[in-house]
Specification:
Elements: H1 10-52, H2 73-78, H3 94-99, H4 116-127
Helix pairs in contact: 1-4
């Protein structure tokens, strides 16, 4: 009277596990790459920007020079008075041109060239697709932004 429960056909079992494994590997590897990129930004790029750029180009300044702020992902992607400063995977990004002291654009920082290692890290970051961390609520001066309704 009861219907017999049979295991799946052998053909179904043969292809199901590799498909599940492949799906798992793809999802984990893409997540890992995004985390690696954000980690690279936090360890290599943000310290360069903080040390050499934030004094003129951050939300903490009264008026960011050139209308350019670099201290949050949102404002970094927005750009400044000269337009977008960053184009992922693009060696001609304005950011890379100014830190390389390209003769066709204003040199940044204006007081002297960045160390070669810092320029190489910025170049590598742009080649990676310029991955950014999720939006942060921390300001350039290290204080937490008060955005909650009750503050």
């Amino acid at each position: 009277m009861h219907a017999e429960i049979r295991p799946p056909a052998p053909a179904l079992r043969c292809w199901a596990w590799p498909a599940v494994a492949l799906l798992l590997v793809v999802s984990l590897s893409s997540t890992g790459r995004a985390d690696d990129g954000a980690d690279f930004f936090e360890k290599k790029v943000r310290p360069v920007l903080a040390e050499h750029c934030y004094s003129c180009h951050s939300t903490a300044t009264k008026k960011a020079k050139g209308g350019l702020q670099l201290d949050t992902p949102k404002v970094l992607l927005k750009g400044g008075d000269s337009g977008p400063v960053l184009a992922a995977n693009d060696e001609t990004s304005l950011l890379l041109q100014v830190v390389a002291h390209d003769p066709d654009v204003p040199a940044m920082p204006p007081k002297g060239k960045l160390p070669d290692a810092a320029v190489a890290d910025l170049r590598r970051w742009v080649k990676m697709g310029a991955p950014l961390p999720a939006a942060t609520t921390q300001l350039a001066d290290g204080t937490a932004a008060r955005q909650f309704w009750s503050f």
